[in-house]
Amino acid sequence: MALSRLLLLCMVASEVWDAETKPIDFVCNRATRRAMNIVAEMESALSDCNGVMTLSTPVPLPCTELHVASWENKSNQEKRGDIAASFRLLIEGVKAVRALNHPGCVASLLQKLENNINNYLLILTHLQLSQGPVVSPSLSCVPRSSQSLSTLLLRYKQLISGKLEQFMINLEDSCTYQ
Question: Of 26, 79, 101, 119, which is least surrounded by CB within 10 A?
Answer without folding.
Answer: 101
